[in-house]
Amino acid sequence: MAKRRKRGEGSVHLRKDGRWEGRVVVDYDDKGLPITKNVLAKTKSECTAKLKKLQETYGEKPNEKLQPDMTFGEWLDFWYQNYSKPRLRPKTQLDYENNIYQHIIPALGSIPLNKLTSNDLQQFYAQMKKGGRLNRTDIYGEGLSDRMVRACHTRCRTALDKAVQDGLIRTNPAADCKLPAQAVKEMQMLTREEMQRFLIQAKEEGYFELFLLELATGLRRGEVLALQWDDLDFTTGELRIQRQVYRANGKLVVSEPKTKAALRTIVLPPSLVEVLQEYRQGVTSRWMFPSPVTEDSPLDPATVRKRLQAILNHAGCKRVRFHDLRHVFVTTALESGMDVKTLSTIIGHVSAKTTLNIYTHVTDAMRQTAAAKIDRGIGKREPQGKSSSDGESLPTRADGTQSKAAFEPYKGKIRKPGTGCVTQINDHLWEGRYSPKWPDGKKHPRNIYARTESECEVKLAELIQQTKMEIAEAKRLAAAGNWEAAMALVGQKKARGARKNEIRA
Q: Is the dihedral of CA 112, 117, 121, 126 positive or negative?
């Protein structure tokens, strides 16, 4: 059995041409990838001598500080900064840094790398489930989700795999850890009647073309918002998906999709092309769905999420995520007989296997439908009744045709001037805002936060009343020439702004 060379001594092997080659790492590049040099010789002893001389030429071995007894926190930080971070997108970097610096290092960072055990990791995962949440404990509870536990485990396992590869430890202690089962989030589907009401309401609120395109193509939210008019050929109906938009560090970022499969071209139905062509006449921006604030910027994904929930609420539909609209398209396509390979290409999956794994429940229902059709064909059974594709019977007219339920879109209510505005931020937080003019002639908005809409309205009314009193006092002080005291009243809004964090904590 060949003797294994020590870490840092390089490698020596016999080439096919009969010569011996020695190779050693002499440095690391900006991405943390190794830079190697090699030597060639006729004999193994001569090759070893040349290799040793090469190491002496380049001086001290790279990364001498990386030792088996370094702390796990030091290794995790080195692994992330040098091997992982350079390959990640800004949004993914935030997720990694939250896992590593907020959870893993505070709990396990002081343990020597070569002393870290599976038991240490297992106890850490159990503690995360029991009381690892750092904020919003009043809403979500003390423990973290199974998904967060699995994410932290993935960071630990990948970093420890690299430590094994570099010879710092012999085995990966994370390999034998038991994790919470990976829960599959149930997909929420809109019925055919709900989709009709949803699109009618979307048209009323100015988002018809956006959501119609989504239901007809199943694009990801970042993909549909990053579309530009140059991406669509109105003659052929071909639509190129070549970028995505997302928010990172408080800014909108436009970049290429993560995978090559996401770079694709799909063909739109002629009826949808006609709708978009008519919609194009009223848009002056290069973006298909521009921001209402800045025309040279795409629509913010967060804005679309909020508008989706508002439209669903006004249309009397169940709450679904934007991604669930993608599921609606896929389910409709499968039920209509589209083959999985074609569908996989349209929605941008890397392989058809991914599509099958996600939509197994749909293909199961299709098999049951096929079996029922065969039964009717062989046994000559009559169908039990005419129903919609989602299993719900639709109303029938006297002539036997199915009718659509009448729906009047919600028109919304206009708030009176001086009453502020109320906005839902997420499922558990509402914001009330009042923006009056102060004696300096500028608007200084003031905000309050609550967990329900009714509570927010009450707090907003109290805020407006108090602010009006302060404005009157500020005007009095300004008239008396005491501008410093008048502007001090304006500065009180900063103290109120801190209440947002108290509500969320």
A: negative
Q: How many residues does the chain have?
A: 505
Amino acid at 300: D
Give the distance from CA 418 to its chain's centroid: 37
Which is nearest to 288 in space by CA: 349, 240, 347?
240
Alpha carbon distances (Å) from 214 to 138, 167, 218, 280, 339: 36, 50, 5, 17, 20
Tens of pLDDT, residues 326-361: 888 888 888 778 888 888 888 888 888 877 777 766
Instruction: State the pTM of this model.
Output: 0.61
Report yes or no: 244 and 256 within 8 Å, Cβ to Cβ. Answer: yes
CB 229 within 8 A of CB 67: no
Cα–Cα–Cα angle for 463, 469, 474, nearest 5°? 120
27: enclosing H helix or E strand: strand 20-28
Residue 481 identity: G
Half-sphere exposure of 65 (CA within 13 A, CB side): 4
Backbone angles phi, psi at 208, to 5 degrees: -60, -50
Task: With H, G, I as helix, E, B as strand and everything else as coil, classify residue 501.
Answer: helix
